[in-house]
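Incident log, support desk, overnight shift.

02:14 A customer reports that sequence design results differ from what the structure should imply. Their input is reproduced verbatim below. On-call engineer (initials T.W.) acknowledged and began investigating.
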């Protein structure tokens, strides 16, 4: 899938080569590599390490867009042209709904935080009775005994579909498994489950009694998913090499 951002004179911004509504090519606004680069900066400042960027998030993870723009421009010299409108278009056309913009011209990550963020202002309606969680064979006995707690993220992330959970797991381990979560029972017990996007749901933790069947079906990744997975793994390897190099330099 081509991820460049274009704008149609009739139907507004879209991702790809042609407008999905009318088929027009529209006007190119942001090249694919620029969409990806800006997305990485947004992820860093809104999900992981805002202090490194000099960005202040409120308790719900929101930051003023006007404070984000100069940070993006400063990260790369060729991003001097970025405006709040560009950021809004990136958010509005993101197929994974990674970010949200509110009526106060604030932006935040909808999910994926590794820093403490209170997401209890997300909606709790429209949450299905069953959702899915990716894990591993080794971890399964542990979570059946102790439940599921956030590990590398601040919230437990649940998926709308079994395949979605499986593919998400592939970004962390080579052979994930998927378990059903009794969300209806979880909510009836008094625990909140929040709707971050149409396909991603957040909760603070899951007691073991709400972890149900293990699902054994495997899924073939699309070419786009394989490419994204390879890119993620390559970035992780580069980070690991940098950290090892920095540690070596600091110890010498």
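02:41 Re-run completed on a clean worker. Output:
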């Amino acid at each position: 899938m081509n991820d460049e951002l274009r704008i149609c004179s009739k139907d507004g911004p879209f991702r790809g080569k042609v407008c999905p509504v009318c088929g027009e090519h529209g006007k190119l606004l942001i090249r694919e590599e620029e969409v990806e680069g800006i997305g990485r900066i947004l992820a860093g400042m809104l999900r992981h390490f805002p202090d490194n960027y000099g960005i202040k998030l409120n308790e719900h993870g929101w930051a003023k867009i006007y404070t984000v723009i100069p940070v993006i421009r400063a990260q790369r010299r060729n991003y001097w042209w970025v405006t709040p409108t560009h950021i809004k278009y990136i958010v509005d056309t993101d197929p994974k709904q990674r970010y949200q913009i509110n009526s106060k011209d604030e932006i935040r990550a909808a999910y994926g935080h590794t820093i403490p963020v209170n997401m209890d202002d997300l909606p709790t309606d429209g949450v299905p009775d069953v959702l899915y969680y990716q894990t591993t064979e080794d971890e399964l006995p542990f979570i059946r005994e102790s439940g599921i707690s956030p590990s590398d993220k601040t919230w437990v992330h649940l998926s709308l579909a079994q395949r979605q959970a499986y593919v998400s797991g592939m970004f962390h381990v080579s052979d994930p498994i998927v378990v059903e979560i009794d969300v209806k029972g979880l909510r009836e017990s008094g625990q909140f489950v929040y709707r971050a996007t149409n396909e991603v749901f957040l909760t603070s933790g899951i007691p073991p009694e709400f972890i149900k069947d293990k699902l054994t079906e495997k899924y073939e990744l699309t070419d786009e998913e394989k490419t994204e997975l390879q890119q993620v793994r390559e970035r992780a390897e580069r980070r690991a090499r940098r950290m090892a190099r920095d540690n070596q330099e600091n110890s010498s």
